[in-house]
């Protein structure tokens, strides 16, 4: 779509350019087997390879003619006569053909057909010319043989490789902060008082949930980047009968003095109690991520549902469109959604739950950049999923865009709802 090309072109990605053209017809041949052709690959990805947006399977091409039953994969009948000029597009001057002795090759084309004799054990002479691909034992990278072998295997690798979609939260997936500031209503011509009212209502619910169920009063000054960052201090004690209110976690001086930085900790006993709280938060998230109504309780459930409905009307189904893209990514076996937000971890988890995003983001895939910044979080994500994975950054801010550019990751900007629609369309067509 035009939106997709415009957004990705801003990152320097050429969209949908064909990476491989079909070879020209072999007019000098008088005898040949069934014809075959290579499809054009119309998807430009980060690794420079292209993929067909509508292919039915990883390596099934609709315009491939089937080979005769007696033929194996990539086995083709050899014509009884051929001319050296026929192979000039495929063999450079540095390459010595295994079918002709080098003494028989002259600058001019061979006019007299030479009968081909198949050796019992043909020896392939390694070719060290610059055009040879490493590890191909002398086959030039431009040869038809290399194209027939390399491109299908490359497509298989790309489709089987892990793809990590790194999302921003506020103003990308959800609309929250811009409701409070009035920027959303100003930009999209909405009722300003209504927008602010809904924003304050959602803010109250976010912090009520964080304080009452997710220990935010205890953990506000001890914020972590990831839910498992203090798991090493957890001794695995059973918490079913544990009383968090009377365990003496907060000292009279306040917990803030014990959490001044990532390297400053309290005693072993205090750190264990901190780990207990993060473990319980993880348990609550996993238990109620698909049942937020049960978490907030019956008095608040109807209020929460009403708030969600009114926000969707005000934002023109912004969240619904974002959830559609998230669901498309989660439906793929080799794709994963990761959330990197500047909100503190506990309020971020509260937001994710209240906006109904728990099924899209496992708690292990949520990172808070409040303390370290997004570049550090991106580095942690890359270390976790590996350098071979393909990363796509989706957001609205300058910070994530600059980090994505620095790390050579494609960036999909979301500045309005049509950007999310275009993203869903690109995902449906396997462009991403």
TrEMBL record:
GO terms for biological process: cell differentiation; negative regulation of extrinsic apoptotic signaling pathway in absence of ligand; positive regulation of DNA repair. It catalyses: O-phospho-L-tyrosyl-[protein] + H2O = L-tyrosyl-[protein] + phosphate. Gene3D superfamilies: 3.40.50.12350. Keywords: Activator, Developmental protein, Hydrolase, Magnesium, Metal-binding, Nucleus, Protein phosphatase, Transcription, Transcription regulation. The keyword Ligase does not apply. Its main location: nucleus. Mg(2+) binds at residues 168, 170, 396. InterPro entries: EYA (IPR028472), EYA_dom (IPR006545), EYA_dom_metazoan (IPR042577), EYA_dom_sf (IPR038102). Its cofactor is Mg(2+). It holds the Pfam family Hydrolase. Its EC number is 3.1.3.48. GO terms for molecular function: metal ion binding; protein tyrosine phosphatase activity. Binds 1 Mg(2+) ion per subunit. It is an enzyme of class 3 (hydrolase). It is found in: Nucleus. One of its GO terms (cellular component) is nucleus. The active site is at residues 168, 170. Belongs to the HAD-like hydrolase superfamily. EYA family. PANTHER family: EYES ABSENT (PTHR10190), EYES ABSENT HOMOLOG 2 (PTHR10190:SF7). This is Eyes absent homolog. It comes from Oncorhynchus kisutch (Coho salmon).
């Amino acid at each position: 779509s035009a939106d997709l090309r415009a957004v990705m072109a801003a990152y320097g990605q050429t969209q949908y350019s064909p990476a491989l053209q079909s070879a020209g017809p072999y007019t000098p041949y008088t005898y040949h087997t069934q014809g075959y052709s290579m499809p054009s690959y119309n998807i430009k990805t980060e690794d420079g390879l292209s993929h067909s947006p509508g292919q039915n399977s990883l390596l099934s091409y609709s315009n491939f003619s089937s080979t005769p039953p007696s033929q194996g994969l990539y086995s083709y009948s050899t014509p009884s006569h051929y001319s050296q000029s026929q192979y000039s597009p495929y063999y450079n001057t540095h390459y010595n053909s295994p079918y002709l002795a080098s003494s028989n090759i002259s600058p001019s084309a061979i006019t007299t057909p030479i009968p081909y004799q198949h050796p019992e054990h043909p020896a392939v002479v390694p070719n060290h010319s610059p055009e040879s691909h490493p590890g191909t034992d002398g086959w030039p990278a431009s040869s038809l043989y290399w194209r027939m072998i390399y491109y299908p295997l490359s497509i298989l690798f790309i489709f089987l490789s892990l793809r990590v979609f790194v999302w921003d939260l506020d103003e990308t997936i959800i609309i929250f902060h811009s409701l409070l500031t009035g920027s959303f209503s100003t930009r999209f011509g909405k009722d300003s008082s209504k927008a602010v009212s809904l924003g304050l209502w959602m803010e109250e619910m976010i912090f009520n949930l964080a304080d009452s169920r997710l220990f935010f009063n205890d953990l506000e000054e001890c914020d972590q980047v990831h839910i498992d960052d203090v798991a090493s201090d957890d001794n695995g004690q059973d918490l079913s009968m544990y009383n968090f209110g009377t365990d003496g976690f907060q000292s009279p001086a306040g917990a803030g003095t014990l959490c001044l930085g990532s390297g400053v900790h309290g005693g072993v006993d205090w750190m264990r109690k901190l780990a207990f709280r993060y473990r319980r938060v993880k348990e609550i998230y996993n238990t109620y991520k698909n049942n937020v109504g049960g978490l907030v309780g019956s008095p608040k459930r109807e209020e929460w549902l009403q708030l969600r409905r009114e926000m969707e009307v005000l934002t023109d189904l912004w969240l619904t469109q974002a959830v559609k893209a998230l669901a498309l990514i989660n439906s793929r076996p080799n794709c994963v959604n990761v959330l990197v937000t500047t909100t503190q971890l506990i309020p971020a988890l509260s937001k994710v739950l209240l906006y109904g995003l728990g099924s899209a983001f496992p708690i292990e895939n949520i990172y808070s950049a409040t303390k370290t910044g997004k570049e550090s979080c991106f580095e942690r994500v890359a270390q976790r999923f590996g350098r071979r994975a393909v990363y796509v950054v989706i957001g609205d801010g300058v910070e994530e865009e600059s980090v994505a550019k620095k790390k050579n990751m494609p960036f999909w900007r979301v500045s309005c709802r049509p950007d999310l629609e275009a993203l869903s369309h690109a995902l449906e067509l396997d462009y991403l």
